[in-house]
Amino acid sequence: MDKPPPNAAAIIVAAGAGSRTGGDIPKQYRIVRGKPMLRHSVDAFRAHPAFTTIIVVIGPGQDALAAGAIGDMAGLTLIHGGAERRNSVNNAIQYLDKLGFAGVTFIHDAARPLLTADVIDRLLAALATSGGAVPALPVVDSLSRGNALGNLTETVDREQLYRIQTPQAFHHDVISKAHRDWKPDQIATDDARMVMAARHQVIIVEGDENLAKFTFADDFDRQLGQSAGMHDVRTGTGYDVHRLVRGEELWLCGIRIAHEYGLAGHSDADVALHALTDAILGAAALGDIGDHFPPTDPQWKGAGSDRFLAHAVRLAAGRGFTLAHLDVTIICEAPKIGPHKLAMQARVAEIAAIEADRVSIKATTTEKLGFTGRGEGIAAQAIATLVK
Hints:
CATH class of the largest domain: Alpha Beta
Helix content: 25-40%
Distance between the termini: 47 Å
């Protein structure tokens, strides 16, 4: 029997004014990837089975903004923050104390909206052996000190230096006592420091570059590409059809499939790879498959279509594009595509030199309508996404 998920509470700190990012509203309510920044964190915790309680700490006068950003308030509690971040977190901890909460508590900054379940899971695992855990990334840049004149003075050893992120996770009794015992004149850079001062171990788990904090106005451009600094993202579509002929080999997505009929064409007639090739060429504005591999050229007679797809990827890379995602739909009555999907996904990923989870293979029929419905041929349509 599977072990039930731990009883976890999330405190999302969203009480700041966000003045350094500019704009008419605090940054946690600005739109990021199609929804308010705060909503991303709320949705991440809502989607995880461990969390039974979610608290959002907001600033004075932000009730309407928060309600609009979060939408459905079911299962959520809004409380007001204090003068400093520590006071805001403490207000939420006291609320949990009054509930008699006895699980684990995650404390997360709303200004880090792109939280993943993987980070949450790593923190939960670390709490099995520690009073607290934080996500962090090693410092990779050279570090130096400087003087008041702006001159470099000495190099700082970056070994064992980390960039600390949130959410920070603790056993609730540990973080609650750390806050209760904290003296007003003590300075707390984050909750982990408070727990460490109480002589509890805090474990570092692998963080995520996407958890970078939104602090300044240009962070929205640099981290998400939402305005002038936008990444060059392009999509292209492809479509191909080939006739089914008895006695021909059937190749789809670079995989040979046993079938009494195969696809007829100048090359191996792999409609799926042809559609994907056209999609990449289209996204990079590089023409179509016929421009690069004309059917009148004898060198492509019987050629494997994996060569076409790999060539399109190289051409796009030559223009500075990275292949982000491929999606193809195969349209046929037979053979059944389902048993071959994983092999197809792996093969397309291998040809395109990308991760398998960036490749989507789908199949459908036309309910016996048209040439595919009559079993006369197979069609494929594809979409490719390129990022510069």
